[in-house]
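User: Quick sanity check before I run a bigger batch. Here is a single chain. Can you write out its predicted 3D structure?
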Amino acid sequence: MKKSLFLAGKFIETPDTITVTDPYSGQIVAAVCAADTAIAEEAVDRAMDARTAMDALSSGELSAILTNIADGLKTRSAELTDLIIAEAGKPKIYARGEVSRAVETFKVAAEECKRLPHEIIDLDWTSAGKGKQGKLIYRSAGVALGISPFNFPLNLVAHKAAPAIAARSPIILKPSSVTPLSALVLAEIVTASGLPKGAFSVLPCSREVAKALVEHDSIAVISFTGSPAVGWELKKQAGKKKVVLELGGNAAAIVNKDADMDTALQKLLVGGFAYSGQVCIHTQRILVHESLYPAFLKRYADMARALPAGDPQDEQTRISVMIDEKNVCRVMDWLAEAMKDGATAVTGAAKAGGEGRHSPATNTGIERIGSYVPPTVVIGAGKGMKIWDEEVFGPVVCLRPYADIDEAIELVNESRFGLQAALFSDSRSVIEHCFRRIEVGALIVNDATTFRVDHMPYGGVKDSGFGREGVKYAMLDYLEPRLLVG
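Assistant: Done. Predicted structure follows.
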């Protein structure tokens, strides 16, 4: 199957294509047309032309367009669920949830576009301002470029597109080359929404073409989700543009001595192993008070071993294959290094995976099948080991005991990342103490580090990037203030 790219309101074919492969079956799903620099240039030109039509839309008209997109996503939810499973290898329960979240993201945008920030400012605080007022409004900053990763191929595209449209900013989307199909279905839905032509393009392309877009003088805003190495380099290339970076994390959870252990176990099992840990806020480190640690470790490891694994199309599957062999090898190499340096994997027996593609891991005692890595619980990990220091982006969770809450906070903060963290406690003083001292964008209480709803401000500090997603907060990055004095 050959899929056209979406250029400013029309689907077009190109000679160059990108192959999309099902991570579970290994079968080719589609060949997707790739944009060259000429197409990228045309997309920018058409987006610039669309600014006038976007600016002319009333709030009601814009809200109706965004609602139409949300309704279109909902109507095609079953199709999109299957597509996400096929291109991303995401278990059905999580793929279905992603589609539902994308619907909500556009619904939120349909509301937020009605209430752009504005302000009347009395300027007579000084004698020079006597008799004058300021009227502050926010207008589109210009054409936006959204670059999204493979792990949420629909909803992270939605988190670029929905706030841009709500801010009346034309946007060009560069989806992951591994998972571009659901973004192209979104483009089909947009064509029937009433959005002005030129205001939306979806361009699967090479890194070279993406770089040309990043450096293009007519792009005003760039929103990027992906790896720190790529994100910080992109910021250097972007020049004077506004840049928003969501660069992942190394999320830690603290299980305090007063925690409800059953709740913590259930939430952190999902946080640790949903979609094989390929989530920016995946629970990578769990710090458990020493009084609870032995019991917590045993129960958590037993629950990890029992996770239903296999075909992502199966309703019962909770963990399946990783996105590709390259990432499997990276995770297995990091585990091997940690085992060599004294860490121990207490789970990791092979389970079901991609049929007929079996290879053993080396130096870990962990066996894997194809692109499947079993849920792996590690003890004895610490600073200097990649599975502790870096973003593992795989089904690996490190457990470690602590003696007092300040020790736990120090362990959380020793990471160079700071996206989200979790705390399991009912003590208001402990919660407030951790909230003041833990260096993250959000602290989640009595839930997994992976908790996110699509209208909350979402983003991190340190190497996790800067700026915030969450429709209302992302819109501010697509807008610029304008002041009228009179």
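The first helix runs from residue 37 to 56.

User: Great, the batch can go ahead then.
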